[in-house]
Amino acid sequence: MSDPLRLADNNLYPRVRATTLPDPTPSKTAPLWVPWHAGLSLYCVQVGEDGHERVITQNDLPQSLGIQDLFRLAVKNLDNTVIFNLNETDFAWNRIVSDGHEANALCLNRLWVWLVNRFDDDVCVALPAENEVLILPASDQENVTLLKAHAAKRYALAPTPLLETLLIYRKEGEWMQASEIRDQM
């Protein structure tokens, strides 16, 4: 039996993962997850003092707390405790670096608002693996093409692949797949 979920602990975090289809007969021991976008889902984990992560299940969820509340708490903990850096690369794009939380940066809306304001443009995002988030202004079409090819190669090599396609974070505050934005132009 697992330890009960203690909400006083600030050790709950979201994890972005490629969506897997739920068991057709969900059980109380199945991981809690919510769909996010473009074939990705958010899971919630509890991180122990030793750094070991335990995926939260329905059994762990107190009756007084809904699934959305759990994920809001996990995202708040991520926002309050993890530092995200924007690093330049040898290519035309930038990289988000954060000690293993890179893909989880997708959960932090204020980070993406800051990026669209910084670039004064929609932001093109490659997320080929959980430890790799690459971005550049979406209007830089020549380099978007290069980023797409780079992301496909990295996806094929990744031990934990996430997305082979690109995402766009729009100035209006919405996520889209790169193909969706072309359809609207």
The unreliable regions are: 181-185
Gross geometry: globular
Strand content: 25-35%
What's the total count of β strands?
Answer: 10
Computed Rg: 17 Å
Distance between the termini: 53 Å
Average pLDDT score: 85
- By secondary-structure content and strand pairing, the structural class works out as alpha+beta
Helix content: 25-40%
Strand order of the largest sheet: 5-6-8-7-9-10
Please report the number of helical segments: 4
* Largest sheet features: 6 strands, antiparallel
Tell me the series of helices and strands, N- to C-terminal.
EEEEHEEHEEHEEH
Oligomer: single chain
Structure characteristics:
single chain, 185 residues, alpha+beta, six-stranded antiparallel sheet, four-stranded antiparallel sheet, 4 helices, 10 strands, globular, disordered C terminus
Protein model, in words:
By secondary structure, this protein is of the alpha+beta class. Helices cover 27% and strands 26% of the residues. The protein is built from 4 helices and 10 strands; from the N terminus they run E-E-E-E-H-E-E-H-E-E-H-E-E-H. The protein has a 6-stranded antiparallel beta sheet.
Describe, in short, the structure shown.
With 185 residues, the chain is of the alpha+beta class.
